Amino acid sequence: MQNKWLFLFGYKRIQLDEAKSHRVLELFRKGNIIARVLPGGIFEISIFSFRRAKRLLGDNFVFIEQGEGGLFSCIPFLGKHPAIPIGVLAFFLMYFFLSLFVFDVRIEGNASLTSEEIVEELSDAGLYVGARWKNIAFPEIEGRMLATSENVAWLNIYRRGLVAYVSVREKEKVPDAIQKDGYANIVSAYDAVIEEITFKDGSPAVEVGQSVKKGELLISAFDQEGKPTYAKGEVYGRVYGTFSVFIPRTDTEIVRHEYVKVKKSIKFLNFSINIFEKYRNLPQDYVIIEDKRRIMLSKDKPLPITLMDTYACLEVKNEVIREDEELIALAKEAHESAMLSYLSSGEIIFVRTHGEFCEDGYRMVSEICMLIEIGTEVPLPVS
Question: Are 372 and 347 in contact (CB under 8 A)?
Answer without folding.
Answer: yes
